[in-house]
Amino acid sequence: MNSLLLSTGSVAFAAACLVLLSTLGWLLAATRRRPSGAAAAPTSAKETADLSFLRMLRSAGPILLGMLLVLALGLASIGFSLLRSLDSPRTEPGDIAFRLAVDRGLYEIQPVWQRAPESSDRVRDAVLLVLPYGTAPADASPALQSESMETRLLRSEFAAWARSLPDPPAAPAYLIPVNPARPEIVSFRLPESIAPEAVRLFYAHGRTEPMDRPELWFREIEASDSASPPPADR
C-alpha cells in the first residue's frame, strides 16, 4: 500500500511537471517575433501589456526551468528515501538468536540473525546489562556506551517494556553498543563470585527513519538460548 501511494504520488508529480513545462514552452513560443515583411497591426494597450508580460516570462524561462528541475530532483530523492524506508522489512524479536557462553566470570554473547536486519545507518542496537547492585563489568568489548540522552531514553523505554514481564528487572546500568550489520561477539568480565543467575542480559534493537514511525523492541538473552548456525550460501 505504501509503495502504491508513493508511486501514485510520483506519477502525479511527474504529470504536474510536464504540464508546467508544456505551459512554459507554449509561453516561450508565443513570444517569438513574427516573420519580417508583414505590416505590423496596430496593437492596443492591453495587447502591449500582454506582450511585455510574455517577454518577461521568456527572459525568466531558464530560471524557472532550473527551479523546476531542482524541485523535481529534491522530491524524487525524498520519495526514494521514503520508499526505501517503508518497504524495508521490519525485524522482530524472533528474528535473532544468541550464543551465550560463561566461563569463570567471562561472558561472551554472539548475536545471530536468522533474517538479515535492515540495512540502514539509523539502526542502533545494544546489549543491556542488569547486574547486582555495586557490580561493574570489566574488559567490555566493544567498549561500554557512554551516558547520553540516547541512553537515558533507551532506559526509559526499557523500563516501560519490562513492566509487562512476570519478573520485571531493574533498569540496566550498562549498555554495550552492537552493530547489527556486522554482528560480533560481545564480551565482558564480572567477578567470579557473581553467580550467572544474578545477571540478566537483554538485547535492544532500534531504528529511526525520516517520516516513519520509530521501531524499538527488546528481547531477553537467556542461558537456554541456542543459536542455529547461519544458513549456508548457495
Describe the structure.
The protein is of the alpha+beta class and 234 residues long. The protein folds into two domains: 2-32 and 45-87; 93-221, Immunoglobulin-like (Sandwich), CATH 2.60.40. 37% of the residues lie in helices and 22% in strands. The protein is built from three helices and eight strands. The protein has helices spanning 2-30, 45-87, 149-162; strands at residues 96-103, 106-113, 123-130, 138-141, 174-178, 186-189, 200-207, 215-221. The strands form two sheets. It has a four-stranded antiparallel β-sheet with strand order 1-2-6-4, with no helix packed on it. Strands 5-3-7-8 form a four-stranded antiparallel β-sheet, with helices on one face. α1 packs antiparallel against α2 (45-87). It is rod-shaped, with a radius of gyration of 31 Å.
Entry summary:
The chain is α+β, with helices and mostly antiparallel strands and about 230 residues long.
Distance between the termini: 32 Å
Assign the CATH architecture of the largest domain.
Sandwich
The overall pLDDT average reads 75
What value does the Rg take, in angstroms? Answer: 31 Å
